[in-house]
Write a structure and sequence with these properties.
Blueprint (H helix, E strand, L loop, with lengths): L1 E3 L1 H6 L12 H7 L2 E3 L5 E4 L10 E3 L19 E3 L19 E3 L7 E2 L10 E3 L12 E2 L1 H6 L6 E3 L19 E3 L8 H8 L7 E3 L11 H8 L5 E2 L2 E2 L2 H24 L10 H6 L12 H6 L2 H4 L4 E6 L3 E6 H8 L1
Parallel strand pairs: 1-3, 2-4, 4-5, 5-6, 6-8, 7-9, 8-10, 10-11, 11-12, 12-13
Antiparallel strand pairs: 13-14, 15-16
Helix pairs in contact: 5-6
Length: 325
């Protein structure tokens, strides 16, 4: 088993030989960067002498957990992608951490980041999950990152719902390509909480095949500079935003001019029972027409109509009604 220790650092040609003349302990105190990627490392030993470490490269190894980093108060960048890590833990002391790379591991739940209030980038793409599983997010972690996180990469994780991510109000770069996102309205709701969004990649999701997908994303994310790897020209953005505003304005105007059923003073049965023809602009509701019975609206008594002012002729009400109609 390969373990990252101070002895391994001392044997590394890419590290210790650069500072000949210094003792090992003195040299370890000067270290700010450690490059131990693709070395078959399975765990981290005691590195507490590297108190000034700021950047640690441990990607492409065989690690199954994150451990023994409690000493690294100054660490700002941690690269641990393409290992076998199953849980995000033991990072609570890394309060200066700004960028965290954990793509290509076996993480099922994003958690354990509640103390990382300066974290700006989180990369979790392509987790090797069991069939049918999808990447999930602990609400406590999301709330703790709400004021700091600017870049989030969750590509290729079987994700079909991102409503929980709406709290990440400072997001500027969002990558969720090759997932299972399909609900356009849900996406628009989430993006309405992200006023800083500049770059977004949703390529490979079912939602991309929906009509007007690109237009709707651009009009919802008004500062977006690129979508799915394609730049958004400023003229295109302004045209779509103005077109949407004009369309909504016309819709509101038209709604104001269409009277509702409650604004109609008389129902259809009242007009016919009163012997009145519909007044200009009168609109009958479907419910009124269904409720009207022509047999009930015709008066049974006979009416007398004067002819040439001399005599009167009696006619039945149904003839009278047809005559007036």
């Amino acid at each position: 088993m390969v373990r990252l220790t101070v002895d391994l650092i001392a044997k590394s040609r890419s590290h210790f030989k650069k500072k000949r003349g210094l003792s090992l302990s003195e040299y370890l105190k000067t270290l700010t960067h450690l490059h131990f990627y693709n070395k078959n490392i399975e765990s981290i030993g005691d590195l507490s002498m590297c108190r000034n470490l700021t950047v640690l490269y441990l990607y492409d190894n065989q690690m199954t957990s994150i451990s023994n980093l409690h000493f690294a108060f100054k660490l700002t960048h941690l690269y641990m992608q393409n290992n076998n890590i199953t849980h995000i833990d033991n990072l609570y002391n890394l309060q200066k951490l700004s960028k965290l790379y954990l793509g290509g591991n076996r993480i099922a739940v994003v958690e354990g980041l509640e103390q990382l209030h300066e974290l700006k980038e989180l990369h979790l793409e392509s987790q090797r999950l069991a069939p049918g599983e999808k990447l999930l997010f602990d609400p406590r972690t999301l709330l703790s990152l709400a004021d700091s996180l600017c870049v989030l990469n969750i590509n290729n994780n079987n994700i079909d719902d991102i409503r929980d991510l709406a709290v990440l109000k400072e997001i500027q770069h969002f990558s969720a390509a090759d997932n299972e996102l399909h609900n356009m309205e849900e996406l628009e709701d989430v993006f309405s909480f992200w006023p800083q969004l500049l770059l977004m990649d949703l390529s490979g999701n079912p939602v991309c095949k929906k009509p007007k997908y690109r237009d709707r994303m651009i009009t919802e994310c008004k500062r977006l500079e690129a979508l799915d790897g394609k730049e958004i020209p400023e003229l295109t953005r302004q045209f779509l935003i103005n077109w949407k505003a004009c369309k909504e304005s016309k819709k509101i105007k038209n709604n104001k001019h269409v009277p509702s059923d409650s604004s109609i003073p008389y129902s259809l049965t009242n007009d016919f029972n009163m012997g009145q023809a519909p007044h200009p602009g009168h609109i009958y509701s479907h419910a009124s027409i269904q409720g009207w019975n022509p047999q009930q609206s015709l008066r049974a008594q006979q009416l007398e109509i004067p002819i040439n002012g001399l005599s009167r002729v009696a006619v039945s009400s149904d003839i009278y009604s047809h005559t007036e109609a």
